[in-house]
Amino acid sequence: MACNPSSSSSRVDRRTVEKNRRIHMKALYSKLHSLVPHNSSRDMLSLPDQLQEAANYINRLQIKLEKMKEEKDNLTQIKKLEMNHDKKSKSSSLMAGQQRTPQIDVREVGSALEAILITGVDFQILFSETVRVIHEEGFDVVNASFSIINDIVVHTIHAQIGESYASENGVSRIIEKLNNIVYGI
Q1: Which residues does 116 contact at the CB level (< 8 Å), separation at least 6?
Q2: Is pTM beyond 0.85 here?
Q3: 35-44, pLDDT tens digit by residue?
Q4: Alpha helices (H) in 36-118, listed in sequence order
Q5: Most buried of 33, 135, 137, 176 (most Cβ within 10 A)?
């Protein structure tokens, strides 16, 4: 049986291509491995375990990034409030000890709701009232956080549509009820 020269050269070409592919994959894996912090464990992890560790690390970074974005948004909101407060202070004569007017921002994002409540320290009851109103309108509070800077309190409340949600409910009704509470409108 005669050996076909084109057949043997294509076999060599495939081997070369496969070898180059493996070398390239090894280089990429090494680069990924160098970017991921490792546990102090001295045991060598298998390649799938190391890839899983890299995926977990990336997920942790994404969560951390989201939290940092939320904190940045909160700080930006506080800065805007302070700038508005400073403008109001300059344009009108405020009496000493006058309370800061709360600001409420409620957004619906798909099936989720985000409420940002910016108050002075004198409006602690407003947070619980906001949670109550959100719950009354059929949303379930998923988490709530707050930050205090000087005399400004920023509350962030995240909620999802609950079982008692009705289509006529929503952001506009929540804002209306909260405005009634805050401003007596």
Answers
A1: 74, 77, 104, 105, 106, 154, 155, 156, 157
A2: no
A3: 888 765 656 7
A4: 47-91
A5: 137
